[in-house]
Write a structure and sequence with these properties.
heterodimer; A: 274 residues; alpha/beta; Rossmann fold; six-stranded mixed β-sheet; binds adenosine-5'-triphosphate; binds magnesium ion
C-alpha cells in the first residue's frame, strides 16, 4: 500500500467535471475537486448547493461517468466494490436501525466488510469504546439520543478501518456538547489511523475549527478553495468564515433551492428514533 | 482507541471480485442479513402475535359461517379444512407485501444508502428481506394452524409434509416480498406504493383458490388464477396439509421459478431507491 505522504500517490478523492442532474435541476454542474490523502476536507455551501449529491457520487450511490470520480486512485464507475471497501459513510439523516441494539448495528457492519471472525468481536468492542457507547451497547437504538446515534454511526463507519471517512453534515441537529463529542472522536481516530476525512457542513464555526482545507460550493460548483485562513484573508482583515460564505454565495443563506426533501427525511427519522 | 483497528486484508481492495468470489460473498452476505432480520424479529416478538389476529378472524368468522350455510361445495372436505391452508397463504401474502413499505422507510431513514455503500451485492440485501418475510410467515402459520386444530380441522402430522409446508410458505413469501420491493423500486414513494399494494393484494387473493375451488370461478377469473403464484402456493399447502389432490411438481416448480425471477428483478431495481 502507498504511504499517505507519498506525493505521487493518487489523491483520496478526485472529481473532474462531475455533473449530476435530476430532470431539469442541475445539482452538480462541472465540479472539479481534489481531496488530499490524510487531510480533513470540508465541503461547505448553502442548502441545495449540491453537497449531498457530490457525496453520493463519491460513495457510488449515484452513477457517474467513468473517469469523472476516483477514490484513492480507483474509478468509482468501474471499481465500485473496491471503492466501497475503502469508504466509511455516515449519511445526512440519523440512520441506525432502531430495533437493533447498538452492538448489533456495529457487528452488522463488521460482517459486511468481511472482518475476520477472530478479530471481529474485539474490533467492535474497540470502536464502541472509542465512541463511549459500551454502556448503552445492549440497548435498542430507538432509546438513544441524537448524539448517541451519531456516535453509533461513526462506530459503524469506523469498524472497517476505512481509508476515507465520508460524513454528510455529521453535527446537524446536535447540541453543542454532542457536536464537540462527535468532532473529538473524529479527530482522535484520524490521529491514530491517518485516514482522510471528507465532511459537509453549514456550520462555519465548526469548519473553521476542524477542517484543514475547505471548498465553498454554490449552485453545483466550487466557488472558493483553500485553508480557512486563506479564504478569510482573501476577503479582508478581521473576517469570519460567515463573511466568506456570504461573499461567495450572495444572500442565499435561505436559498429556495432544494433542502426540503432532506429536512423532511430528517424529521421523519427523528420521529421514528425518538 | 484502546487498540488500533486492523484493516481487512489488503488483497481485497486491489481487484474487482471475480464470479466465484462474488458468489461466496453473496452467500455470506445473505447469511449476515438473515441473521440481522432474525435479531429484529426477536426484539419485536409481540408483533408476531398481533399480526395473527386478522387470519384468526377470517377462520373463525368467515370459516364458521360458510361451513354452516354450505354455500361453497368442497366435496368430501369440510369447508373449514379447505379454507385453513388458504388463510395461511393469505396471511403470508399480507406480511410479504408490507416489505416494500419497509424498504422505503429504510431508504428515507438513510439505512439503505449505508448498506449500499458496503461491499454487499444487492441480491443479498433483497434475498435477506425475502427470507425474513418467509420466517414471519412461518411463525404466523404456527399460530393459525394451532387455532385451526382447536376449531376441529385435522392436519397431517407427517414431518416431511410439514417441512414441505414451510418451504412452500417461504417461497411464496419470497415472491410477494420481492414483488413489493419491485413496485417500491418503480414508484419510489410510500404513498403510491400503499395505493398500489392495496390495489393488488385483494385481487391476488380473490383471483386465487384460497377461498373457493377453481371450478366455481367464471372463466376469465380461472385464467387469472392460472398465472397467480398464490394459487400454486395454496394448492401445495392444501395438498400437503389436508391431502387434497395437488400437482406438487408443478406447484413447487412455479414457486421456485417465480421467487428466483422476482428476487433478480427486485435486486436490479433496488439502487433506484437511493438515486
Ligand atoms: N433525488 C433527487 N431528485 C430530484 N432532485 C434532487 C435529488 N437530490 C437532490 N436534488 C436537488 O439537487 C439540488 C442539490 O441537492 P443536494 O441535496 O445535493 O444539496 P445540499 O447541498 O446537500 O443541500 P442541503 O444543505 O440542504 O443538504 C437541490 O436542488 C435538490 O433539490
Ligand atoms: Mg445535503
Amino acid at each position: 500500500m502507498t504511504s499517505p505522504f507519498d506525493s505521487s500517490a493518487p489523491p483520496a478523492v478526485r472529481c473532474t467535471g462531475l455533473r449530476q442532474a435530476f430532470g431539469d435541476t442541475v445539482a452538480v454542474d462541472g465540479l472539479d475537486l481534489e481531496v488530499r490523502r490524510g487531510e480533513v476536507f470540508g465541503l461547505l455551501g448553502p442548502n441545495g448547493a449540491g453537497k449531498t449529491t457530490t457525496i453520493r457520487s463519491i460513495t457510488t450511490l449515484l452513477p457517474a461517468p467513468p473517469g469523472t470520480v476516483t477514490v484513492l486512485g480507483r474509478d468509482v464507475a468501474r471499481q465500485k466494490t473496491q471503492v466501497r471497501r475503502l469508504i466509511g459513510y455516515v449519511p445526512q439523516q440519523l440512520s441506525a436501525d432502531g430495533t437493533l441494539t447498538g452492538r448489533e448495528n456495529v457487528m452488522l457492519f463488521a460482517r459486511l466488510f468481511d472482518l475476520p471472525r477472530r478479530s471481529r468481536k474485539e474490533q467492535v468492542e474497540s470502536v464502541l469504546e472509542a465512541m463511549d457507547l459500551v454502556e448503552a451497547a445492549d440497548r435498542p437504538v430507538k432509546t438513544y439520543s441524537g448524539g448517541m446515534v451519531r456516535r453509533l454511526e461513526l462506530a459503524q463507519a469506523l469498524v472497517s478501518a476505512p481509508q476515507l471517512l465520508v460524513l454528510d453534515e455529521p453535527t446537524v441537529g446536535l447540541d453543542p456538547v454532542a457536536r464537540d463529542g462527535v468532532w473529538d472522536r473524529i479527530a482522535r481516530t484520524r490521529a491514530e489511523t491517518g485516514m482522510t476525512v471528507l465532511v459537509t457542513t453549514h456550520a462555519m464555526q465548526e469548519a473553521d475549527e476542524h477542517c484543514e482545507r475547505i471548498a465553498l460550493m454554490h449552485r453545483g460548483r466550487v466557488r472558493a478553495l483553500g485553508t480557512p485562513e486563506e479564504l478569510k484573508g482573501a476577503i479582508g482583515p478581521d473576517t469570519t468564515l460567515d463573511d466568506v460564505f456570504r461573499h461567495h454565495t450572495g444572500d442565499t443563506l435561505d436559498s429556495d433551492k432544494g433542502g426540503i426533501r432532506d429536512v423532511r427525511a430528517a424529521r421523519r427519522t427523528a420521529g421514528r428514533l425518538g | 482507541m484502546s487498540a488500533p483497528l486492523a484493516a481487512p486484508p489488503a488483497a481485497w481492495v486491489d481487484t474487482e471480485p471475480g464470479p466465484v468470489t462474488l458468489l461466496r460473498t453473496a452467500l455470506s452476505r445473505i447469511a449476515t442479513m438473515c441473521l440481522v432480520e432474525l435479531q429484529k424479529l426477536r426484539h419485536d416478538r409481540t408483533e408476531l402475535v398481533t399480526r395473527a389476529v386478522q387470519p384468526a378472524l377470517w377462520l373463525i368468522i368467515f370459516g364458521q359461517v360458510f361451513t354452516n350455510i354450505h354455500a361453497i361445495p368442497t366435496g368430501n372436505t369440510p369447508y373449514l379444512d379447505f379454507l385453513a391452508p388458504g388463510i395461511l397463504a393469505q396471511s403470508a401474502l399480507f406480511i410479504a407485501i408490507f416489505y416494500g413499505i419497509q424498504i422505503i422507510w429504510e431508504r428515507d431513514a438513510g439505512v439503505l444508502a449505508k448498506l449500499l455503500v458496503t461491499p454487499t451485492p444487492r441480491v443479498a440485501l433483497v434475498a435477506a428481506k425475502a427470507f425474513a418475510a418467509g420466517v414471519r410467515a412461518v411463525a404466523q402459520a404456527v399460530v393459525v394452524l394451532l387455532l385451526s386444530v382447536v376449531l376441529g380441522v385435522s392436519f397431517t402430522a407427517n414431518p416431511l409434509k410439514l417441512l414441505g409446508v414451510i418451504v412452500a410458505l417461504m417461497l411464496g413469501s419470497a415472491f410477494f416480498c420481492c414483488l413489493s420491493i419491485t413496485i417500491a423500486g418503480l414508484v419510489l414513494s410510500r404513498d403510491r406504493l400503499m395505493g398500489i399494494g392495496q390495489a393488488i393484494t385483494m385481487p391476488l387473493f380473490f383471483a386465487s383458490n384460497a377461498l373457493y375451488p377453481v371450478a366455481l370461478m367464471p372463466t376469465w377469473l380461472q385464467w387469472v388464477n392460472h398465472i397467480n403464484p398464490l394459487s400454486y402456493e395454496v394448492e401445495a399447502l392444501r395438498g400437503l396439509l389436508i391431502g387434497t389432490p395437488a400437482r406438487m411438481g408443478l406447484c413447487f416448480g412455479v414457486l421456485v421459478v417465480a421467487a428466483a425471477a422476482m428476487i433478480t428483478i427486485a435486486s436490479s431495481l433496488l439502487p433506484r431507491l437511493t438515486r
